[in-house]
Sequence to fold (192 residues):
Amino acid sequence: MPESFIVETSARHIHLTDEAVAVLYGPGAQLESRKALSQPGQFVCANEKIKLVGPKGELMVSVLGPVRKDNQVELSFTDARTLGLKDVPVRDSGDVAGTPGIKLIGPKGELELTQGCIIAKRHIHMTPADADRFGVANGQLVSVRLETAPRAVTYSDVLIRVSNKYALAMHIDTDEANAACAFGSVTGVIVS
Fold:
């Protein structure tokens, strides 16, 4: 029987740069952890949420820390439609060049991003030891079956991301989770 791994739903959120934190929360502000996430060193911020303002709508999003080198807004296709954003691409995290921008409103200021909105490509975080155990490599695309009743689903084009900084977990967005009834404790297996 194939080895399984946890599948987590990654709801809409934003990653900010130091500069964006200063504009949105005020000079000298820093991101503070409210809750640790499954990936080592990553956390949901205690700071207030940020408002996204698109051509047709608004949404509140959580901020994830720590700060990054680029601002990145991770949405589902449903979120993008709610905001009125068109042509939001499916991308690997960190690949924001040429993506749509959006207006951010924080408790102390506003910021107009010229790029940064993506639909995160579904992926599995693995350590090198995990990758060896599963027989996969960084950048490889695999299929993963989620055994979720009553809607078991197999997702193709799942990106393998390997780093010593990761912990074993697959991430899907809310649209993908809803399609599979992936609520509560969910596991997946790589299928050939």
